[in-house]
Amino acid sequence: MSTQGRSLWLRCEKKEFERRAALTPTTSEKLIAAGFDIFVERDEQRIFDDDEYSAVGCKLVEHNTWPNAPQNIPIIGLKELEESTDPLPHTHIQFAHCYKQQSGWSKVLSRFHRGNGTLYDLEFLTDSSGRRVAAFGFHAGFAGAAAGALALAAQRKNQQVGHLTPFKNEEDMITAVKNQLGGSGKGVKALVIGALGRCGRGAVDLFRKIGLDEDDIVKWDLDETKKGGPFSEILDVDIFVNCIYLTSKIPSFIDHDSIRDAGEKRRLSVVVDVSCDTTNPNNPIPIYSINTTFSKPTVPVEVGPGNPPLSVISIDHLPTLLPREASEQFSADLLPSLLSFPTSRVWTDAEKLFREKLADAVEAEKL
To answer: In this predicted model, what pLDDT tens digit does every residue of 117-151 receive, in sequence order?
Structure first.
């Protein structure tokens, strides 16, 4: 691929309640200083005001006009585009959620085939050791644990947790969660799988900050799960947070049979599937089948007659509960790679992967 002009077009986010941004004013200012032109679509939903971008030299453009942008300007965003069959002629930098054969994956990629566009999936930008160059993992785990604690507090009152709205900052989030739990999380027991990764560390951090005793934060990773599930230990905590990065089929962590077999003795009340591989056929938590949303954060699990309730949180953009902090961290981590776009190994490897997945989609769609 030939080197493109030093420009980026920050599109608006059309996913409901999504307030994060792939580029922040802080990062945009640094890109502009390096010679980039940064175009920013006006967006009232974004946590950063339009004026914050214009103040650092970004060029504001009208809301959702990226389809008409010059085709040599890469379009950068976070969440997937709205469903459509329109061809995609631009280069897109975003999370597309279509490389692991999720629902509709081939139709998403076929749009790039028809438009001769290119996708650089943010999930698959990796350094020389295979580690992602930028990820929302920590804030996903942190926010997921908070949502789980709020759901537990509501369930203890025989209620369902209501509409979740983004918090101004971390301090506000912690205060709100502790208040809902009666002043502290002390006495709550949680289990985090994937506790050594960025996401798991975020979940553990939240549980500590709301007052859980250290012994009540059960931290599992590969060593604890290598024997294969289902794991009865998960049923003996109040909140289970799944933070693993799924790459292949593994035994289920819990399933309907283990839940029903536990009967009335089950302690588990809330499952937070931060990994959110809802439509992935290898999902290790096969007790639900839909993504939940900020407006309806939980989905009930079929537990059998007479057994205590169990709900799942499967929101696929949890970090937007802390949109400013999550965006600043992610964008800062992405900046070094953006400065070398599109010629460094990070990008050439990502384009190679795109070509491989595109070929699979072309075959699947019989194009």
So the answer is: 999 999 999 999 999 999 999 999 999 999 999 99
Query: CB of 121 within 8 A of CB of 132?
Result: no
Active site residues: 79, 97
pLDDT in tens, 291-329: 999 999 999 999 999 999 999 999 988 999 999 999 999
Cα–Cα separations (whole angstroms), residue 22 to 4, 79, 284, 328: 19, 9, 29, 9
- Residue 140: which of 197, 80, 202, 78 has the closest Cα? 202
Residue 268: closest CA among 143, 148, 146, 142: 148
pLDDT grade for 5, boundaries at 50, 70 and 90? low
Give the pLDDT confidence of 187-240 residue by residue, as tens digits: 999 999 999 999 999 999 999 999 999 999 999 999 999 999 999 999 999 999
Residue corresponding to tokens 């500590």: 208
Report the alpha-carbon distance of residue 259 to residue 261 in Å, rounded: 5
Model pLDDT, residue 17: 87
